[in-house]
Design goal:
Layout lengths: L4 H6 L4 E2 L2 E2 L1 H118 L14 H6 L1
Antiparallel strand pairs: 1-2
Length: about 160
């Protein structure tokens, strides 16, 4: 049991014939010594604990510094990766737009070629039909009288 300084100050050993009672004084000193040993031991334990906590504090501060550095590095890397991804996306988009424009130009050119070819074929067909009409007019033979299948298109002969 630890004695407080106030308790120690108010202790008075019993008095005897020629001064203090020896047995009571010895018991009082023994109680004070035990109390002092307890306090001394507790103080040593607390000093060890403070030393351990200070070492932990140093370690935790180093860890905190490392974590801050790591976090800053991760943020920089993240920002760099985002920027690189944005640039790559922009590049992909610009390439896609260029490819779309090339496909459009090719499609327009192919459309114009097909329109021209269609007009040319229509003109040839008209010319062929005019030639057939001219030949029929020249023969002056009605088409119904001379139906040998030569004046019809191949698909029309089978349908007739």
């Amino acid at each position: 049991m630890a004695l407080t300084p106030v308790e120690i100050r108010h202790m008075t050993p019993g008095k005897g014939f020629m001064g203090y009672n020896r047995a009571q004084t010895d018991r009082l000193l023994e109680d004070i010594a035990v109390s002092f040993e307890d306090v001394w031991r507790e103080r040593a334990d607390l000093a060890d604990k403070v030393e351990q906590l200070e070492a932990d504090l140093v370690r935790f501060r180093e860890l905190e510094s490392l974590l801050r550095t790591t976090l800053v590095s991760a943020e920089r890397a993240s920002t760099g990766l985002k920027e690189q991804a944005r640039r790559e996306a922009d590049l992909i988009l610009s390439e896609a737009h260029a490819e779309v424009r090339a496909i459009q130009r090719n499609a327009i050119a192919e459309n114009e070629r097909l329109i021209t070819e269609s007009r040319r074929l229509k003109a040839q067909l008209r010319a062929a039909l005019e030639t057939i009409d001219d030949v029929q007019d020249a023969e002056d033979v009605p088409a119904a009288d001379k139906d040998d299948g030569q004046n019809t298109w191949p698909g029309e002969r089978e349908a007739a």
